[in-house]
Amino acid sequence: MSCLIVGVLNCTPDSFSDGGKYASVAAAVAAGARMAEEGANWIDVGGESTRPGAAPVSEADEKARVLPVIEGLRGALPPSVRISIDTYKAGTARAAVAAGASVINDVSGGRLDPDIVGVAAETGAGIVLGHMRGPPATMMDEIVFRDVVDEVGTELAERLSIARAAGCYETWVDPGLGFGKRLEHNVALLHALSALHERLDVPVMVGVSRKAFIGQLTGKPADERLFGTAAAVTVAVMGGAAAVRVHDVAEMRDVVRVAEAMRT
User: Fold this and answer.
1) pTM exceeds 0.70
2) For the chain, what are the domain ranges?
3) Choosing from 65, 94, 181, 211, which is the catalytic residue?
4) Quick one: average pLDDT of 217-244?
5) Backbone torsions φ then ψ of 201, nearest 5 degrees
6) Residue 226: in which H helix or E strand, if any?
7) 220 assigned to active site
8) Which pLDDT score, from 0 to 100, does residue 16 have?
């Protein structure tokens, strides 16, 4: 299976790299349509920043940000382009699926709101189970791993079991790079993607785009991490990632094409 391109569409004022850029519904829908034209296979719409230290927003505020955008995108995108809702709240997920989303992308893997896996099962939506310990506001406070690859694999396997028991039929995992992990943990997980995929036997989505660990390696701010992101995306594709979640769709589509050619 070719590696899919997931375009990041943050409808938030405070996301770490593009907060406030798509504050209006029209701007967000236009951005999503442009990503699809550039090669995105699906658009991931988020209404709450999950950057380290981010404060939570209410479900009502989150819905107000994302639902009009999802409705607009469903009318603007080709049927082949999927829409996912980036949320850990079951209520937002249910409303987003009703508005036109077909995938729920939960960075907490159902830890923060266990009802979200039931929503995926009941609605037939796919679900991406991310790895994160604790909420975004505090996830970087106490980071302790004995063996990050083994522990993330074990914890994702537990989330998968819960989702399957609930009746979810399409499940993905995301190792949660940048979510409660230090530089060395992110590097180790990226290096071990193929082993993680082999262990869990479900598609793996990887989000490395513009993240802090790339800044630590390059010394560049978020808006200057294009080449660092390209390197990390290459490693992810070579490691068997089924999807990469990116901000710069056109550029990363080229990266994915070349990396896939090398992988095969």
Assistant:
1) yes
2) 4-263
3) 211
4) 97
5) 60, 40
6) helix 226-238
7) no
8) 44
